[in-house]
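Complex record, two chains
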Amino acid sequence: MGLRNACATNVLKRVMIQQEVTIKNRAGLHTRPAATLVKTAARFQAEFFIEKDGMEINGKSIIGVMTLAAEQGSTMNLRFDGIDEEAACAAVADLFERGFDEQ
Amino acid sequence: MGTAYLYSKHVPHIEMKTIAESDVEAEQQRVRTANARSEKELQKILAFAEQKLGSQSAKIFEAQIMILNDTILMGSIEKRIAKELKNAEYIVGDEINKYKRMMLASPDEYMHERARDVEDVMHRIVRNIQDQKLFSRLEGASIIVSESLLATDTVIFSRNQILGYAADLGGVTSHAAILSRSLRIPAVLGLRNVTKNVRTGDSVAIDGYAGTIAINPNAQTIEQLEKKAERLKAFEEQLTAFAPLVADTPDHKHIELSANIEVPEEVDYARAQGAAGIGLYRTEGTLLARQGDPSEEEQYEEYKKVAEATFPHPVIFRTFDIGGDKLAPGEYHEENPFLGWRGIRVSLDRPEMFLTQLRALLRASTKKNVRIMFPMIAKVSEVRRAKEFLKLAKNELKARGLHFDARIKIGVMIEVPSAAIMAEEIAAEVDFLSIGSNDLIQYLLAVDRDNAAVAPLYQQFNPAVLRTIKAVIDAGHRKNIWVGMCGEMGGDPIATILLVGMGIDELSVVPTVLPEIKKIIRTIKYKDAVRIADKVLTLHTEDEIREYLASVIKKQLPDIPLED
């Protein structure tokens, strides 16, 4: 629950919001969750980037998301930037929270 | 002996080229078109995979389709083309490879598999950008090592100073092997795992006669192989002396001895080997080497070149024979291609393609030395339909005011058992018959000659085969037309004697064996051949036939060189 509340504009950097998430589903960020993630992000205008282990990729690009070797338990930082960034952040963070509805 | 190049069909060659600013839009468009095509291909593969392999395996292709639809990726590719002024395939390769490298950097094996998928989709896009013209240059390599070798590959490689081929799949009678022999490029096929044992850059020696290869051979092996090559060369030169002579038996029975070829470049070689004409020109090469059907103009140019080079001798063009062991168009897949959509069946189902080819052939016939032959005919009605198409093509040319041989001779390949049984009725419809022994034997004996497990069951001296051939020859003669053979059997010395004895009028063989076959025809008296053939037709098994032939030939015809 705390996650969703955290999707608020960063006070220091007004132009965007950030959110840390953890992979909960056992299989990690494999093809199906990656596709769900990209599709969800595409519904919003805000730019969406994912940073993991010092590497940042565009979260609206499936090939980019596929490069993230994100196994269960790993964390990543999401960054949204755009007029609907809060809604985008909430929707995406919710996916992670629900473990992409997988086990 | 040369440097190996490991060739995989799915790995296109990407060159970096600088483009003009005015070409940017066209270059970007090429990416979009290639993407659309790739997606179509993948959708088909996906449907197939879901049906045959289960949804788990199909996921790979789903992911690949998603990559094609990745607007961020495609957007940055288009942006980079405009900014860096580089060709589409280079940018596509470079951009996608960035992700591949990131995946390979992970210690996770799963990510490595993903990297291969990503590479696969990149190759697909690039291949579609390049319009399937994969490889124009092979940079210093001279021995091609691949999983399988298609006839078209052989043709394309032949233009690149290739010294030899080695492949995992295929046998001595496979189409690629026949062609490579004709182009005088040694090939060793059916090695099963050569692609695993050879790496690009290895030095490889090919012994096409023994059917073996040596990987990184030592000095002694090289010396032995070179000596062997010299001996064989001397033997071949000796045979070339027969080239200018006619193919008549000592008792003056004339056999029309001609050549089977596939590309216009082979005509000169066939004539140098002493061919009286071209008994089989395979036309499907152009169809396979490019995407989409070749235009009438393009085909006309090719056929005219062949007809002029062969003049005054005749050339028999066989209409497209795709399917079977050749490439099926697009992603079309058949469980049983040899019993599937091939030869005349494809042509009759694709009127535009067929008419275009017939018009091109007719236009090339003005010197009156062009003949047309239809492959895979199984019944009389197919011959009649093909003739109707020919009539239609003639009328179209007349309407355009173009010239052609109005009485162009047509023939049929007899390679399906049903056509052999109906040979007399088919003969009544055409000007000649040509027995396609390779397929006829396969269909008669139910043996796939490319399947190593049953290959020994492929017997050209099986009595059922010989009786069928005899029946076809007789049927043609009853209708006063000539009967030839354009299969490999015609190029076997012992078979030559039998075929002459059974009354064959024409033999069309690969150019390499022409002098040898001519020597045999000139050695054996027709009346002896008839006697031998008559006796053979009374025997019941292939073993008996071989035994009888060996004894008779050894005793009565010691001049004929036979293998043990």
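Note: Chain B has three domains: 2-129, 143-237, 241-556.
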